[in-house]
Amino acid sequence: MKINSIKGMHDLFSFQTQNWKQIENLLHNFFEIHGYGEIRTPMIEKAELFNRVIGDETDIVNKEMYSWKDQGGDILALRPELTAPSVRSYIEHNMDKLNKVTKLYYLGPAFRRERPQKGRQRQFYQYGIEAIGSEHPEQDAEVISMAYNIFNMLGVENLELVINSVGSKETKKKYSTILKEYLSSHIGDLSDISRERYSKNPLRILDSKSKEEQSIIKEAPSILESLNDYEKKHFDQVQRFLDKLNIPYTIDHRLVRGLDYYTLTTFEIRTQSIGSQDALCGGGRYNNLIEQLGGKPVPAIGFAAGMERLMMALNLDKQTKASKIDVFIISAGDDAITNSLKICDTLRNQLGIKVMMDFTRGSFKSQMRQANKLNAEYAIILGEEEIKRKVGVIKTMSSGDQFEVPLDTIHKHFDVERVKDDQ
Ligand code: AMP
Fold first, then answer.
1. How many A from CA of 306 to the centre of ligand 1?
2. Cα torsion 88, 91, 97, 100: sign
């Protein structure tokens, strides 16, 4: 019986990885020019890291995390996100001693046992940044504008940037009481999940996607009314900087986001172009997290975004025509095969040309079909007759033009630099 991949976990084929690599290169370059350095953390961490960072009450930890007891008795987990590992590494390696502000970026797989659907996998790739060390609003503006500019630069349409401020831990607490008071008269209309959240973490009710609850939430008092003077000023300045940078945004006081660690600024970028799972990116400040995890009280802000959703938004997740190869070598007979191997080696390793040859020992016709299918620009034909005369035929596939050249100098016809010099 054949074995298939795990539900919600997908193979990426070469027509996809080609596009992925292009976008990945662009992202690496984008982050580097902003002064962010790449961090690659292990795929597996102690489960406790995520329990403490993301919170036991969240769906991610409670229901979706892949965790198990390993042979040594440790409870381990596949990372459901990459902020916690990045912060763990920052503290473990005393990065605060190297620079006042540490700027990290990452790109790699994350795992959540969610219900798979379009734009939602159980293994997905996240890219994101963490700016650790500055509490000031200009840092928020840099991070938000970077998140926005990636999509804008790549031409993603219908972008919607939503921002909010949830204040400090104390403000959240104060607001929770106000929210509970408001919701108490609607308790009968809330879902079971929301009723459970009402007692444990009422702010999360604001995340609800249900239509009935949305209409209740719409009328709820705004968290922005609960911000203290510092928090208000911080949020005002973030907006002022975004205005100066011409980054369009809307404010939504209901954007508290699922994770417990956020303080002050939260934001999300969405697009209607990719269906119901419309969140391209989410982020915010987490000023208490590093201290909570045993580090110094260092403020930080970051975002995480999904690669699959980005590729969907760019329409790069579909099958496209095979990319071109430069040369395909058609051969017949043992001597021709030896020569094919040798020519491939020279063209690839001395000239960096993309060359393929036949490995099926097929007929001339079937090898020519391969050359066409692979979109080859040229074919080199090494028939028994040619080999006897120590020549090869170079054929331009588009025009059908062909000419003979001596076998031992065949590679020179593909040496672009030499050809240029000769002209
Ligand atoms: P989060 O860590 O939940 O804030 O997610 C950040 C971003 O990662 C989202 O905006 C999505 O683009 C992406 N993402 C989160 N979960 C998934 C998933 N299960 N499948 C695909 N992309 C995801």
1. 5
2. positive
